[in-house]
């Protein structure tokens, strides 16, 4: 296995450049902030960007937890990649990650300054420290469960359509819990209000009889009991409401909706 490293200070655009660099050097796997990423998917690990403090994030990125470390080591042993890129803020950090994961020291160490301009690094720095945004080199749909409840956007909203290398692989922007911009909480009442509004606005629902919202590690599960107006295509109307609930909750709250059940408890003659 050939090990490569990409090194640069925090907020200089390493994760943004990683997929482009891997494409140029025919590298299929990346170690970045506690995650093992391969072929546009998270294969193992825990993202440092999910930690509540910067100290916790650093520990996760260094694989200090034995369970976390073993999970990634076992996956690496299973897939046995020919080439892998390890991303770190310094050479020392990269060496520590390699030791924890049982990898050889990197054959080639690339500095972020060697593959980016000062203008690009400054732009990345502003996005990190002014807006609290971090890049993960994985498509957004791959992170919905991992980052349920975190606001995420495809990278086109982060760098703009005209940015250099923007078409080289897919990436996602998240705002971590430990961002200095602060955390946020969304109450169950907000979610039920959204559901109620969608149901009544549809014109198919006479009354929302009852609803339940269950939070899970991967997102939320929703169950809605409705009394609907008679004389319409009830199944088609319920399916439309179901789709709207998922769409609006995910857009307005950033929660991943695992499941949405609609139960029709009765019909009202219009």
List keywords for this structure.
2 domains; alpha/beta; 8 helices; single chain; 270 residues; 3-stranded antiparallel sheet; elongated; Alpha-Beta Plaits; 12 strands; Rossmann fold; 6-stranded mixed sheet
Write a structural description:
The protein is of the alpha/beta class and 270 residues long. The protein folds into 2 domains: 2-174, Rossmann fold; 188-268, Cation efflux protein, cytoplasmic domain (Alpha-Beta Plaits). It has helices spanning 14-25, 54-61, 66-79, 91-100, 118-131, 156-159, 188-202, 234-253, and strands at 2-7, 29-32, 35-38, 41-45, 83-88, 108-111, 134-136, 152-154, 172-174, 205-216, 219-229, 257-268. A 6-stranded mixed beta sheet has the order 4-3-2-5-1-6, sandwiched between helices. Helix 7 packs antiparallel against helix 8 (234-253). The radius of gyration is 22 Å and the shape is elongated. The relative contact order is 0.14. Residues 151-184 have low confidence and may be disordered.
Could you give the topology of this structure?
Blueprint: E1 2-7, H1 14-25, E2 29-32, E3 35-38, E4 41-45, H2 54-61, H3 66-79, E5 83-88, H4 91-100, E6 108-111, H5 118-131, E7 134-136, E8 152-154, H6 156-159, E9 172-174, H7 188-202, E10 205-216, E11 219-229, H8 234-253, E12 257-268
Parallel strand pairs: 1-5, 1-6, 2-5, 11-12
Antiparallel strand pairs: 2-3, 3-4, 7-9, 8-9, 10-11
Helix pairs in contact: 7-8
């Amino acid at each position: 296995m050939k090990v490569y490293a990409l090194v640069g200070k925090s907020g200089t655009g390493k994760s943004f450049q990683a997929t482009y660099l891997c494409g140029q050097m025919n590298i299929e796997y990346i170690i970045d902030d506690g995650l093992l990423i391969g072929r546009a998917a998270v294969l193992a690990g825990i993202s440092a960007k999910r930690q509540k403090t910067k100290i916790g994030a650093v520990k996760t990125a260094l694989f200090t937890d034995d369970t976390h470390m073993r999970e990634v080591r076992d996956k690496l042993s299973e897939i046995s990649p020919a080439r892998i890129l390890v991303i770190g803020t310094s050479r020392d950090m990269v060496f520590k990650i390699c030791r924890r994961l049982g990898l050889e020291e990197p054959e080639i160490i690339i500095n972020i300054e060697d593959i980016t301009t000062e203008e690009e690094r400054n732009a990345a720095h502003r996005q990190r420290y002014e807006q609290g945004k971090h890049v993960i080199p994985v498509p957004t749909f791959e992170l919905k469960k991992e980052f349920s409840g975190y606001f995420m956007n495809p990278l086109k909203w982060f760098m703009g359509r005209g940015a250099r290398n923007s078409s080289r692989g897919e990436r996602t922007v998240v705002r971590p819990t430990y961002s200095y911009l602060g955390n946020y909480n969304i109450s169950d009442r907000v979610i039920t209000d959204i559901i109620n509004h969608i149901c009544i606005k549809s014109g198919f629902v006479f009354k929302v009889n009852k609803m339940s919202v269950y939070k899970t590690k991967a997102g939320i599960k929703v169950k809605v009991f409705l009394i609907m107006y008679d004389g319409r295509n009830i199944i088609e109307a319920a399916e439309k409401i179901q789709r709207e609930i998922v769409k609006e909750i995910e857009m307005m709250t950033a929660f991943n909706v695992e499941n949405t059940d609609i139960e029709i408890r009765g019909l009202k003659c219009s």
